[in-house]
């Protein structure tokens, strides 16, 4: 049964979206639309441990951390946390089996999940209502339909991200004066990363265009090594902040940046929440589904041609979200195309001065 709860009488709403960084950034805009529609409701968000570090202090929302590394103990703790409660509605925004098991222990009168077309991993067994089906939606638009299901209006998304003046000051202290071009080069899988010498070529071009170039990322070995490789290939003096910031300070760096370059990775979507233009690099997944939402016109992609080459059909003829495979796909993205996009962004965003 499709959800359609237009009542203003909701007093308690639970959101379930555990991961990942990009997805919870998409979900924030929907949650804040819900807050505008139901200002009287208490909102609880069950969320992953890392993601909670970014969203800690989200206005008007209680974050309940589910640490997947604790396995069954985490489920037991969550069940104890909610003992004696019953939410008016659970918005179950994740189809992964782990999230479905979490939904099972969250007491709610109604449990709203995805439409049949996007249900998988037994998702249908853990819900009793569904959002409306959508034609080729972006992930963010899917989350907006959860908000609409309980009477919220969703137009162009907006965000109020939880950072403090201290986070802003920390970011400012790390950054040089002048225009900032941030390269966030690492995705969760190495095959989704562009080549280090090509990132370096963009860094050199940006420096010649009057930008300071900053590399950001987390503390993992993959990210550290990729940043070091970029530095080896560049002729410019880059500021390497990989592993040197927490998520909130990184968000403030992205906020203070003028342009961001990134593959399919969380910081690209973090940048969108603070309205910083993003040049997205895509090969394996459809940028119309997972690209930087406000800046999809700035994507450089080889996804669609590879989809046709591998499947013999276009995205419109295949299940929405079909991925393509191959370790070398990102190498098909040419430096000249990304430089051309960089120059276009600089012109359209009036960053020449």
UniProtKB/TrEMBL annotation:
Top-level division of the source organism's lineage: Bacteria
Any one GO molecular function term: ADP-heptose-lipopolysaccharide heptosyltransferase activity
Gene3D superfamilies membership: Glycogen Phosphorylase B
GO cellular component assignments: cytosol
Stretches of the chain forming a coiled coil according to its record: none
Record flagged with keyword Transferase: yes
Entry-linked SUPFAM superfamilies: UDP-Glycosyltransferase/glycogen phosphorylase (SSF53756)
Keyword Glycosyltransferase carried by entry: yes
An example Gene Ontology biological process: lipopolysaccharide core region biosynthetic process
Record's keyword terms, sorted: Glycosyltransferase, Transferase
Family the UniProt entry places it in: Belongs to the glycosyltransferase 9 family.
Protein name, per record: Heptosyltransferase I
Organism: Pseudoalteromonas peptidolytica F12-50-A1
């Amino acid at each position: 049964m499709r959800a359609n709860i237009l009542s203003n009488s909701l007093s308690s709403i639970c959101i379930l979206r555990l991961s990942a960084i990009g997805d919870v950034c998409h979900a924030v805009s929907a949650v804040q639309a819900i807050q505008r529609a139901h200002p009287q409701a208490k909102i609880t968000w069950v969320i992953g441990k890392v993601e909670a570090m970014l969203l800690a202090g989200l206005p008007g929302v209680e974050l309940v951390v589910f640490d997947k590394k604790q396995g069954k103990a985490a489920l037991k703790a969550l069940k104890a946390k909610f003992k004696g409660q019953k939410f008016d509605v659970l918005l179950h925004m994740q189809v992964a089996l782990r999230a479905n098991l979490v939904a099972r222990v969250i007491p709610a009168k109604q449990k709203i999940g995805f439409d049949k077309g996007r249900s998988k991993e037994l998702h249908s067994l853990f819900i009793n209502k569904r959002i409306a089906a959508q034609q080729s939606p972006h992930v963010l638009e899917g989350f907006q339909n959860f908000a609409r299901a309980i009477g919220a209006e969703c137009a162009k998304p907006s965000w109020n991200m939880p950072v403090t003046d201290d986070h802003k000051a920390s970011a400012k202290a790390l950054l040089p004066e002048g225009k900032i071009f941030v390269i966030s080069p690492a995705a969760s899988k190495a095959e989704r990363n562009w080549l280090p010498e090509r990132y370096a070529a963009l860094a050199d071009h940006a420096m010649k265009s009057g930008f300071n170039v900053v590399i950001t990322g987390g503390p993992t070995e993959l990210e550290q090594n990729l940043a070091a490789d970029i530095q080896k290939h560049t002729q410019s003096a880059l500021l390497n902040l990989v592993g040197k910031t927490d998520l909130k300070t990184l968000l403030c760096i992205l906020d203070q940046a003028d342009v961001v370059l990134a593959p399919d990775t969380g910081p690209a979507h973090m940048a969108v929440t603070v309205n910083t233009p993003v040049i997205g690099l895509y090969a394996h997944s459809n940028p119309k589904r997972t690209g930087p939402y406000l800046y999809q016109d700035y994507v450089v992609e080889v996804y669609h041609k590879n989809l046709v080459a591998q499947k013999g059909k276009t995205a419109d003829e295949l299940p929405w979200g079909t991925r393509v495979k191959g370790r070398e796909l990102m190498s098909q993205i040419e430096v000249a195309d990304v430089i051309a996009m960089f120059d276009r962004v600089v012109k359209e965003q009036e960053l020449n001065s």
